[in-house]
Design goal:
Elements (H helix, E strand, L loop, with lengths): L1 E3 L1 E4 L32 H11 L3 E3 L1 E3 L13 H11 L4 E6 L6 H11 L7 E5 L7 H4 L5 H13 L4 E7 L7 H11 L3 E6 L4 E5 L3 E5 L1 H8 L12 E3 L2 H7 L2 H4 L9 H4 L2 E4 L5 E2 L7 H6 L7 H4 L7 H5 L2 H12 L4 H7 L3
Parallel strand pairs: 1-3, 2-4, 2-12, 4-5, 5-6, 6-7, 7-8
Antiparallel strand pairs: 8-11, 9-10, 12-13
Helix pairs in contact: 1-2, 3-5
This protein binds S-adenosylmethionine and iron/sulfur cluster (2 copies).
Amino acid sequence: MYTVEELQLDVTSHCNAKCPGCARNEGGGKTVSWLNLHHLDLTFWNNFLIDIKNKFQIKRIRFNGNYGDAIMHPDLIDVIKTFRTHYPKAVIQIPTNGSARSLDWWKELASVLDNSEYYSEVQFAIDGLEDTHSIWRQNTDFNKIIKNIKTFIEAGGMAQIVTTLFDHNQHQVDEIVNMAYSLGCTSIFLRPSYHDQTPVNTDKNFVIYAKKTREMMEKADWKYNKMYNKPLWFDNNSSLKANQKIHNQIVKNKSKCPWIRDSLIQMDCWGNVWPCCHIGNTNTRNQSFDVDNSILKINSLHKRSLDSIMSDSWFTKTLPESLDSKPWDICQQRCGVV
Ligand SMILES: C[S@@+](CC[C@H](N)C(=O)[O-])C[C@H]1O[C@@H](n2cnc3c(N)ncnc32)[C@H](O)[C@@H]1O
Ligand code: SF4
Ligand code: SF4
């Protein structure tokens, strides 16, 4: 049995939002022309799970990736139900912009996530208050998201607010933390933007800055420094449940690669398997000229099973040998591997 701590699944390449730093669009404007818009096929997903359930232990599934937002998948609830059938004990996490779907849909999602034994949650991106949130999360509606969060929580769902701090919203951090608490969220996660500056190329051209904020957040005397890149829990029971033993028995491999070390893998909506989200991102991969692109010939689940892909020499030799001898640019730049 192969243990996967986390399967990261980009279940769709569709999105309702236009965040300027996202791989799916050009500076918050048009969707990139080469993106094949697709939703993971439900029958393919079911057959895939039947094939792997006795070969791979999956402890957590995270509906995250490079190109889409999970709530845009027309059958997300069925995708989750199918997963639950085959992996009843796995933890489910859904990071989302939260700005789509009806209130009834959010109630149903809360019931499907069923937290009776293990802790599963939706992580709602709230990048400011009503006046600042959509500067980054373009095309989303702050008030609609707040209504969705309330409905989801009232229906029994566990919600985390994830706030990316920029120079334009960092002064609102106290209000955002208080709001997350009053809404009944179990926790809030504060993080700096991964870009120091992002040019926005829409009808309004401007730049979004975050460098000063990141520097402020890294200082030991920053008010929330202890919560830097860690959740601030409001609810002890949820925190205990989320950290109960099953989650702590983490398989650690020896590798310079953080994804191999933590036994994480990525799958996209077209059925391709990747060692991480960086190599799974076409642009990032193509900018690193030394990556061995023969992965493209062996990583399709439409042609091979997951165990056959994971035991292919690309995963067992090519990648580990590059990490040990001459790490690819992408591994140096994204993960600091030397
Ligand atoms: C392409 S998104 C996919 C998930 C979902 N659509 C979302 O936005 O939460 C991948 C990840 O990047 C995160 N992200 C987006 N903008 C970011 C930023 N400026 N800094 C750090 N992470 C960011 C998202 O929150 C998400 O966890
Ligand atoms: S919500 Fe997520 S997928 Fe959609 S544009 Fe923003 S970062 Fe990209
Ligand atoms: S970029 Fe390289 S080191 Fe980083 S997670 Fe991917 S494979 Fe591992």
